[in-house]
Amino acid sequence: MKKRIACCMMPAILLLTICGIGWAQERKLPDPAGGTVAVLDRTSFVVVRDRGPDNYSVVLYEVVKGKIRVVDAVRVSGDFTGDPPIVRYVRSRDIQEK
């Protein structure tokens, strides 16, 4: 009886392991590049970075007297495939200039 259970469990464990490895390879990893830049006007632009599956950061920059200053930053997450899409955002309260 124990051998029969062991024989049935081995293929099930093997199948779950293979499916888990396949699922891990399908996940979208964050983009290592700088992100997408959109120019709003002559003195401001936005940088959108991919932070992982359905997770993005949006940072608004402003050019003042030749220096770039961070104006606002928001982290956006949610399910964008649904109808209607579910969007959640968190505003960064402590913006640090670099």
What's the main sheet like? 5 strands, antiparallel
* Secondary structural class: alpha+beta
Largest beta sheet: strand ordering: 1-2-3-4-5
Number of helices: 1
Choose one word for the global shape.
Answer: rod-shaped
Low-confidence spans: pLDDT under 50, at least 5 residues? Answer: none
How far the N terminus sits from the C terminus, by CA atoms, comes to 66 Å
What do the pLDDT scores average to? 76
How many whole angstroms does the radius of gyration measure? 22 Å
Order of helices and strands: HEEEEE
**Overall helicity:** 25-40%
Number of DSSP E strands: 5
- Estimate the strand proportion: 35-45%
Brief descriptors of the model:
5 strands, 98 residues, alpha+beta
Describe the structure.
The protein has 98 residues and is of the alpha+beta class. It is built from 1 helix and 5 strands. A 5-stranded antiparallel beta sheet has the order 1-2-3-4-5, with no helix packed on it. It is rod-shaped. The protein starts with a helix and ends in a 7-residue tail after the last strand.
